[in-house]
Amino acid sequence: LQGIIQAYKSGITLQGNTTSLGRWDYSGSFFFSISAITTIGYGNLSPSTAAGRIFCIMFALFGIPLNLVLLNEIGQLMLLGVQHCACRLEEVFHWQNKASFLMKTCALATGLLLFLLLPPLLFSDKEGWSYEEGFYYSFITLSTIGFGDYVIGMNPDRTYPSWYKNVISLWILFGMAWLALVIKFCINLLE
Q: What is the reported pTM?
């Protein structure tokens, strides 16, 4: 039994004894890196050697602060884009407070669509999850809770496209930046 558990952790499935999950190929490694520096930590994949664990610690010590800087910059660029659009609306339509409110509402709706409402459709197609399961995965991932009960690209019965994990990794970075802006906006409203 212990041998079977170790084999599974190494990526070997009981169906044909292959490493079809592609855990440590380029896209799997990139996805692992993103889940480490974003502190999501699904718990389904981890280094198994002492050298790998030490490297992971060093990678995280530098990667987590750099990721926070990156997320802040992405968030600031998103905010700058919203503010620029609001200024243009004020100039064109001579709206003062309405333009800012309209742009914030549009940014919220666009973010909801791109980061929480549309991705579950992709997960339904690629993972076979229901829409609700995909929505749950989206929120749990972007909020960095990362329970690990749903993780993309782990079903040995499915074939995943090579771009899939890379696109999801980028979705995670931009989605986390957007969600951080939403949380910041909610905090400002509460204060």
A: 0.79
